[in-house]
Design goal:
elongated; 103 residues; endoplasmic reticulum; Dolichol-phosphate mannosyltransferase subunit 3; mainly alpha
Length: 103
């Protein structure tokens, strides 16, 4: 099992990576809105206003696909299944030892 320090380092680096990507996308969008990046009028009037909605829908689609794929392939992780069962049994033994009734 990973220690807290290893987990927090991994989470923080993933957070930093995500924050950097969001910052870059927002910066480009704001550059389009403020016309720092020259674009044709049709792009500025018809595409730029819907970019945040498009990004939200794309992110939602990606999140749902990732969640669905994880659920779909959950049974393929046989070693994790057995690890989870052993942890459940370990928790039941611990709880019974401390006077908690467990089914």
């Amino acid at each position: 099992m990973a220690s807290y320090r290893q987990l927090s380092t991994h989470i923080m680096s993933k957070f930093t990576e995500t924050a950097l990507a969001v910052f870059a996308l927002v910066s480009v969008y704001l550059a389009f809105v403020s016309k720092v990046i020259p674009t044709p009028a049709i792009f500025y009037n018809e595409i730029v206003p819907v970019l945040p909605f498009w990004a939200l829908v794309s992110f939602g689609s990606y999140a749902l696909f990732t969640l669905g794929w994880g659920v779909f392939t959950f049974n393929d992780k046989e070693e994790k299944y057995h690890e989870l069962l052993s942890e459940i049994e370990e928790a039941k033994v611990y709880l019974k030892k401390n006077g908690v009734t467990v089914d």
